[in-house]
Amino acid sequence: MKIFQFIQRALGNPPKLHPVDHGLARHWTKQRLAAVFPDLRGDARRLEAAYRALDLAPRTSDINPSDMIFEIGLHRDIEP
Predict the structure, then answer these.
(1) What digits encode the pLDDT tens for the residues 40-72?
(2) By three-state DSSP, how is residue 58 classified?
(3) Which of 12, 32, 51, 73 is the most exposed place for a label (fewest CB within 10 A)?
């Protein structure tokens, strides 16, 4: 099974993400956004817009291929 994962990673296919992992990543990211931007704490609509403005890309760790890492990038401007 590890050889199959290695081939998928080498070909550039993103790893399949379990729904629980996706939910945890979403929850953690929203918590961090609310901590970094206090004005988003009370506004669920703006918090969701800020979350959707992020490009959350899962990939396997270089150190331990069985670990999942989420890279966060901004792909559009957040409206004030």
Answers:
(1) 998 999 999 888 888 777 777 788 877 777 777
(2) strand
(3) 12
The burial class, CB within 10 Å (0-12 / 13-18 / 19+), for 46 is middle
Distance CA 66, CA 62 (A): 9
Q: Where do the structural domains in the chain lie, given as residue ranges? A: 2-74
- Say which residues have a Cβ less than 8 Å from residue 70's Cβ, sequence separation at least 6: 25, 29, 56, 57, 58, 59
What separation in angstroms does the CA of 66 have from each of 48, 62, 63?
Answer: 30, 9, 9
**8 Å CB contact between 68 and 60:** yes
* pTM given for the model: 0.59
Which residues, other chains included, contact 68 with Cβ-Cβ below 8 Å and sequence gap of 6+? 15, 17, 21, 58, 59, 60, 61
